[in-house]
Amino acid sequence: MRFVALLFVLPIALLLCGTRPSFAADPVQCAAPRELIEDEPQLPALAERFKQHKPITIVVIGGGSTAGTAPDNAYPHFLENALRQRHPDTAINVINRGVSGQTTEQMAARFTKDVYTHQPALVIWEAGTVDAVQSEDVNAFADALTTGIAAVRDHKAEIMLMDMQYNPSTVSVINFEPYLDALHQTAALEDAYMFQRFEIMKYWSEGSVFDFNDVPKEKRASLAREFYKCLGERLADAVEFAAR
What we know:
Blueprint: H1 2-8, H2 12-15, E1 20-21, H3 34-37, H4 44-52, E2 56-62, H5 64-67, H6 75-86, E3 92-98, H7 104-109, H8 111-114, E4 122-126, H9 129-133, H10 138-154, E5 158-162, H11 177-189, E6 193-195, H12 197-206, E7 210-211, H13 220-242
Parallel strand pairs: 2-3, 2-4, 4-5, 5-6
Antiparallel strand pairs: 1-7
Helix pairs in contact: 6-13, 10-11
C-alpha cells in the first residue's frame, strides 16, 4: 500500500505509466460526452470579463498531477493555450500552483500565498487524490473543501472543482468512492462547478483513447504530454460552458 501511495503523488507521466493513444490525440479525437464536461453552476463574473475583453487570471491549485513534469507539460499550460486561441483579444494568464503530496486541507492552507496574491478571476481546485491515498477522514475532507470554497469567494474569485484521476490499475486498491461522493456532494451543496476528470479519464480508458497501462518507458513523456493537452482542452470546454 505504501508503494501505491507513493505512485499517486508522482506526476502523471509516472503515475499512469505513460499513455498510449490509439490515434493522435487532438481536441476532436479526445472528445468527451457533454454530460461529463457541462455542469449547472455558472461563472457570471468570468463571463463578463470575457465579454468585455478584460485581462483574466486563473489559478489552478492541486497536487502532483496539476504540477505535471514541467510547467509547459502540464494541463494548466494547455488550458491557457486553448483559452487564448478561443479569445485572442483577451489577455489570459493561467498560473499553475500544483504541489505534490498534499491533502486538501494542506492545499487550502496555502491559498493566501499561492492564490489570493494573484487576484484571480477563477480558481480551479483539483483535490482528493492524496486524501484517498492516505485514508484521511472523509468528513474532514468535505469540511476543508467547504471552508476553502467560501474563502475563495470571500476574495472575490469564482471557483471550479476538479476530482481525482482515474487509473484502472489503482482504483482496485484505493477506495476513491467516499471521496468522490464527498467532493461531488460538496460541489452540489456549495453550487460549485464540478469538472469530472475521473469519469472523463475512465471514458477515455474504456474507449481505448488512452491506455493507462503497460506503456514503454521511452514513450511516457511524449504521450503524457498528449494526455495533458487533451485534459487542458476539455477543461477549456468546461470554462467556456460555465462562462456562457
